[in-house]
Amino acid sequence: MFYETGTDHGLPYDPFKACVVPRPIGWISTRSSSGHDNLAPYSQFTNLTFDPPYVLFSSNRTPSGARKDTVNNAEETGFFAWNLATYALREEVNITAQQLDPGEDEFVAAGLEKEDARKIPVKLVKESPVRFECAFDRVIELPGNPPMGTVDIVIGRVLAVHIADNVLTDGKIDIKKTEPIARLGYYEYAVVRDTFEMRIPGTNKALLDGLEGSAKANRGLEKTGEEGKVVGQLKRSQSAGAEAALGKME
């Protein structure tokens, strides 16, 4: 089949979100300027780059056209946190997706325990095995069709990372232990348990270190012509074009 966006696709359910899968969940915690804690999941979340590490999440406006509390809180206070959404916490993630009144605490509604962050004034989900403490960088408004089409894209720099020791195997985060969940289309979710590894053939170690996300190796690159070659290879090989995309959005 083929259809142009904005026209009738002829299917009983809209297929667009079901095409872009799986989508990591941005389970974002914030605190308002008045001290109220907030926690909500967003299905448009990803990392942008790794040295320094940046992440983004996008939030559609409410049916009334207003910004979500998460966006307001992050911009007003300058901080937010990301908590890994896991299969074990799937029900809690779903509960925090409810639209509660401002000032109501999603942590309490979902029966989650709060944990103090070390560098930012935002609570973390204690039960989540991986958490990021983030400093707000900017918000980009992407206009869309009212009332919910307009989206706020929030970018933040990761200041600190928490990883539970019991999800590490041989120095790596073990996907079989974290069991992250991801959004699919419609009302469907996926849980990630199986992985496979591939390395690009014919590439040098510096490029592989970059694809692995090694900040240590990146900082060890000498300022030579070879470094420029590696950077060029990286940009061509990363289909997401994370750093280039960030530059275009500025």
Automatic annotation (TrEMBL):
<feature type="domain" description="Flavin reductase like">
    <location>
        <begin position="18"/>
        <end position="175"/>
    </location>
</feature>
<dbReference type="GO" id="GO:0010181">
    <property type="term" value="F:FMN binding"/>
</dbReference>
<dbReference type="InterPro" id="IPR012349">
    <property type="entry name" value="Split_barrel_FMN-bd"/>
</dbReference>
<dbReference type="Pfam" id="PF01613">
    <property type="entry name" value="Flavin_Reduct"/>
</dbReference>
<dbReference type="InterPro" id="IPR002563">
    <property type="entry name" value="Flavin_Rdtase-like_dom"/>
</dbReference>
<protein>
    <recommendedName>
        <fullName>Flavin reductase like domain-containing protein</fullName>
    </recommendedName>
</protein>
